From TrEMBL:
SUPFAM superfamilies per the UniProt record, alphabetical: Acetyl-CoA synthetase-like
Name under which the protein is recorded: Acetyl-CoA synthetase
Presence of keyword Acetylation: yes
Biased composition (Basic and acidic residues): 452-461
Origin organism lineage: Bacteria, Bacillati, Actinomycetota, Actinomycetes, Micrococcales
UniProt-listed Enzyme Commission number(s): 6.2.1.1
Record's keyword terms, sorted: Acetylation, Ligase
């Protein structure tokens, strides 16, 4: 009987996959059509067996015959400069940069690290690497040297693309200088390509190249690079890009995303939300939602992508509304943290956003009830749809949109108790997916690889345990409460609380620590640290510990090792026994005691 039930379940999967995914697969051009969409097997099944596809053709080249003069992207820099490229102009730059990369010896399988913000050259580099079969990974420009060096060491790239300096929040980040320092102990990098963005002076070394010089010197080779590419059509299991994802261990997981995983899922999302006007994903370039759904999605359908540099409150807090109006944005995709900022600013950007925006989609972290109510009150009254999207990097991006006007293929969402049984509506448990998805990652690197796979499959090989704690309401709404493990989503990026604790515990005056997530009115979710200190430094006599100095050192240490999102926004000093209290209890106490603007606090008793 179990074998019969299993056979019926597999048959149902194949049938639903055919009906749900066939219309999406038909939006792509295949050099070799798949033998079938999904072939079940004991390891979880194979998507698109036997198929070959040209990713660059689908993203760019196929649009040249029909609408080469259509705008491929709009870009706005933080100082206010702007650039727009048609599909023909973008194709020319991609072909030229492809020729330059080939001349530098970059080819299929070579790893490329992109350490840039959102620039037109970032899009060009991503597409050129895609055409060559050289997997790319985008690293945040805000990372300090130590954290950046760790990313490079794990990626092991042969080529780095960076910029002289990066505009961010009215200041210039010395990106090239940081890259030089971070690469000091990295032997794999043969060339560094530098985009001249700010005009600041930078050190120059053997193997450094200006991006503009490479374009200028390779213009005559662009046609050969565009139309003669031995790796243009590849098997669907060829890696398109890689992503660094926080895990319980350090370093992070390095996930591999193939063309057969990413393109169908990107197509499914964009097909679901596509309509009059443009999609704008307001997020950092290092956020995979920005890369996959904000850039590649529009390009896949021949639409216009919108990119912006820096932050949304520079040069003024009305910037989001101005971009929405200027570039005919009808769908606004962003993280809840951005909407919290817009709510806090309370300026005219709300009115401008309401005037033309058709749909707001949040993704990357849970939306608390207060923000959800504000979104509906502020925007829904003006006819704007408010949708909460869900997905994971390990699933290829956003996979769940349940709305009358925007629906993606069924992912078999269930809420499961610890014993593996499906719970009733209104109860809380773990979100588990029971239907195979093409975007699910099958390959990753890192010390936590085996434990990650075990946790995903703890309810069986045909189920995907997401690690997210949710309630499936009686009205069919999925209410997200956060993670079941120590991974937390801050501004759409996963942060490991255990990694934060490891850095804090290395401080000589720290006895023990507990990193947790708090909610602060108007600011949303943030990391805080509860710390028990030793009375004096090792070997020191009559040394009084200053709480303010230790708090500052802790914050700076976490920032240097893990980056800004992992940095505690507040440090709360307690006795050693308090650190061991449940994190939920600690978070409630810390949230209640901290005042707005506090960066440290000592609790007694």
């Amino acid at each position: 009987m179990p074998d019969r039930q299993n056979a019926d379940m597999i048959g149902n999967h194949v049938s639903s996959i055919e009906s749900n995914w066939r219309p999406i697969i038909n939006t792509l051009d295949w050099e070799v059509e798949p033998d079938e969409l999904f072939r079940p097997d004991p390891t979880g099944g194979t998507w698109f067996p036997g198929a070959r596809i040209d990713a660059l053709h689908n993203l760019l080249l196929r649009h040249l015959d029909t609408h080469s003069d259509r705008l491929a992207l709009h870009w706005e820099g933080e100082p206010g400069d702007r650039e727009s490229l048609t599909y023909r102009e973008l194709a020319d730059d991609v072909a030229t940069f492809t020729a330059a990369l080939q001349k530098l010896g970059v080819g299929a399988g070579d790893r490329v690290a992109l350490h840039t913000g959102w620039l037109p050259s970032t899009a060009v580099a991503m597409l050129a690497c895609t055409g060559l079969g050289a997997p790319w990974t985008l690293i945040p420009v805000s990372l300090p040297v130590e954290a950046l060096s760790q990313k490079f060491a794990q990626l092991n790239p042969t080529l780095v693309v960076t910029q002289d300096g990066a505009w961010r929040h009215g200041s210039i980040i010395p990106t090239k200088h940081r890259v030089d320092d971070a690469l000091a102990a990295i032997e794999s990098v043969e060339h560094t390509i530098v985009v001249r963005r700010t005009g600041m002076d930078v050190a120059w070394f053997v193997g450094d190249h200006w991006y503009s010089d490479l374009l200028e010197s390779n213009r005559d080779r662009r046609h050969a690079a565009r139309f003669v590419s031995p790796t243009s059509a590849v098997d669907v299991d060829t890696t398109l890009c890689r992503a660094l994802v926080a895990s319980h261990d350090s370093p992070a997981l390095l996930t591999s995303h193939t063309v057969g995983q990413l393109l169908p899922n990107i197509a499914a999302f964009h097909r679901a939300i596509r309509g009059p006007g443009n999609l704008w994903c307001a997020g950092d370039a290092s956020w995979v939602v920005s890369q996959w759904h904000g850039l590649l999605g529009p390009l896949l359908f021949g639409d216009t992508a919108i990119l912006y540099e820096g932050t949304l409150d520079i040069p003024n807090r009305d910037r989001a509304g101005q971009i929405i109006s200027r570039f005919n944005v009808s769908t606004f995709l962003t993280a809840p943290s951005v909407m919290r900022s817009i709510r806090e600013w309370e300026d005219e950007s709300h009115n401008q956003a309401n005037s033309g925006i058709r749909r707001i989609i949040t993704a990357g972290e849970a939306v608390e009830p207060e923000l959800k109510a504000w979104l509906r009150e502020r925007f829904k009254a003006h006819g704007t749809e408010v949708i909460d999207g869900w997905g994971q990097v390990l699933l290829g991006g956003i996979v769940y949109l349940r709305h009358a006007s925007a629906t993606m293929p069924d992912c078999g969402l269930h809420v499961i108790a610890d014993d593996g049984q499906t719970i009733r509506p209104g109860e809380t448990g773990e979100m588990v997916l029971t239907t195979p998805l093409p975007g699910q990652v099958r390959s990753w690197e890192g010390p936590g690889s085996s434990s990650t796979r075990d946790k995903q499959q703890r309810f069986g090989p045909d189920r995907y345990a997401t690690g997210d704690r949710v309630t499936f309401s009686t009205t069919g709404e999925v209410i997200h409460h956060g993670r079941l493990d120590d991974l937390v989503s801050i501004s759409g990026q996963l942060i490991s609380l255990s990694a934060v604790e490891n850095v804090i515990d290395d401080h000589p005056f720290v006895h023990s620590s507990s990193a947790l997530v708090i909610r602060r009115e108007g600011l949303g979710r943030a990391v805080a640290a509860v710390v028990a200190t030793v009375p004096e430094a090792s070997g020191a006599v009559d040394f009084e510990v200053d709480d303010s100095s230790i708090a500052s050192e802790i914050m700076n240490s976490v920032h240097d090792v893990l980056g800004g999102l992992g940095r505690p926004r507040a440090v709360v000093f307690v006795d050693a026994g308090t650190v061991d209290l449940p994190k939920i209890e600690l978070a409630e106490e810390v949230t209640a005691r901290l005042q707005r603007g506090d960066t440290w606090l000592r609790l007694s008793g």
